[in-house]
Amino acid sequence: MDSVLAGARVGLTRYDPAGTAAALDRGALVVDTRTETQRAEQGELPGALVIDRTVLEWRLDPTSGSRIPEATGWDVEVVVVCHEGYSSSLAAASLRAVGLHRAGDLAGGFAAWRDAGFPVGRGPADVRR
After folding, report:
1. Which of 2, 35, 96, 123 gives a 20 to 30 Å CA spacing to 11?
2. Which stretches make up the Rhodanese domain (predicted)?
3. Inter-residue contact 64 to 74 (CB < 8 Å)
4. How many Å apart are CA 28 and CA 105, to the nearest integer?
5. Neighbours of 53 (CB within 10 A)
6. Mean pLDDT of 85-93
7. Residues 116, 30: Cα–Cα separation, whole Å
8. pLDDT at 63 over 90
9. pTM
10. H or E, element range at 106
């Protein structure tokens, strides 16, 4: 699995918490793929959209009939967030393979965000189904 993860991260922008906050400020889509249980236990990342990992590509592909309104083109900046920054790297690589060349992830995941002292919300989350 280590080699798969390393391959997924080649060319991937890995944001630190401050970089993720800056991306939010400039209008990037910050997408939280953590489970409902994880978010209930750990808190919400304010400003993030919550999209289940199983439908992520369909919701962000601008040509998909199942896309969210914010998926306006291939140049949209996307920062994927998971709990610790592993599955988010795989998800961001998948988005890049679909054509979203500005997809990256939060290194260290939500845990890094929280541990760096960035705000943690209690909801409600902006869940996209």
Report:
1. 35
2. 24-122
3. no
4. 12
5. 17
6. 98
7. 17
8. yes
9. 0.97
10. strand 103-106
Quote the tokens at residue 57: 């590509």
Helix (H) / strand (E) containing 14: strand 13-15
pLDDT reported for residue 117: 98
Mean pLDDT of 113-120: 98
Q: Phi and psi of 21, rounded to 5°?
A: -60, -40
Q: At residue 123, does pLDDT exceed 90?
A: no
Angle CA 25–31–33, to nearest 5: 150
Are 58 and 67 within 8 A, CB to CB? yes
Tell me: pLDDT of 110 over 90.
yes
Helix (H, G, I), strand (E, B) or coil at 87: helix
Measure the CA–CA gap between 124 and 119, rounded to whole angstroms.
14
